[in-house]
Write a structure and sequence with these properties.
Pfam families: Lipocalin (PF00061). The chain is α+β, with helices and mostly antiparallel strands and about 180 residues long. It is built from two helices and ten strands.
């Protein structure tokens, strides 16, 4: 009986992976992307995900993207801050270039991530991040150098939110760095 279910499980897994890969292939990437031009401070204007409960407004611990850095060899660092009651910690997540321009991969404890620089004029940026661990989480973020929503960029971003059936999530910006202990 267990042997009979084996091929069905493999087929279901294969179809699931094929569906996940198809969704990733649907994500566009900025033509001629230049990672060095996205270095620096960014503010999150909009955030959406495929899970409505991804970020709770009541959660006292906040995670926010602060800035983006590049390294020799093409790696990209995302500088994040965790902040909450009595907690302030800087975290760097490094992703590595793939064979496709504007796409990066990395790993974290228990999973992997794929980052696509979807669209940018280097003052505004639409970023797609896919986390894979026990489940797949798709994040879409609208970033800007200043806290000013450009209607053109907001419209582009909202098209992706609609196309991929995403849920808006609360946005947090944190002025870093953390004070010394």
């Amino acid at each position: 009986m267990a042997l009979e279910k084996g091929p069905l499980l493999l087929l279901a897994l294969g179809l699931g992976l094929a569906g996940a890969q198809k969704a990733l292939e649907e994500v566009p990437v900025q033509p001629g992307f230049n990672a060095q031009k996205v270095e620096g401070r960014w503010l999150t204007l909009q955030l959406a995900a495929n899970h409505a409960d991804l970020v709770s407004p009541a959660d006292p611990l906040r995670l926010a993207l602060h800035s983006i850095r590049t390294r020799d060899g093409g790696d990209v660092d995302f500088v994040l801050f965790w902040k909450g009651e009595g907690v302030c910690k800087e975290t760097n997540i490094t992703v590595h270039p793939t064979q496709l321009q504007g796409q990066y991969q990395g790993s974290f404890e228990g999973g992997s991530m794929h980052v696509c620089f979807v669209s940018t004029d280097y003052s505004n940026l639409i970023l797609y991040v896919r986390f894979e661990d026990a489940e797949i989480t798709n994040l879409w973020v609208l970033l800007a150098r200043r806290m000013l929503e450009d209607p053109k960029w907001l419209g582009r971003y909202l098209e992706y939110v609609e196309k991929f059936h995403l849920q808006k999530a609360p946005v947090f910006n944190i002025d870093g760095p953390c004070p010394p202990p």
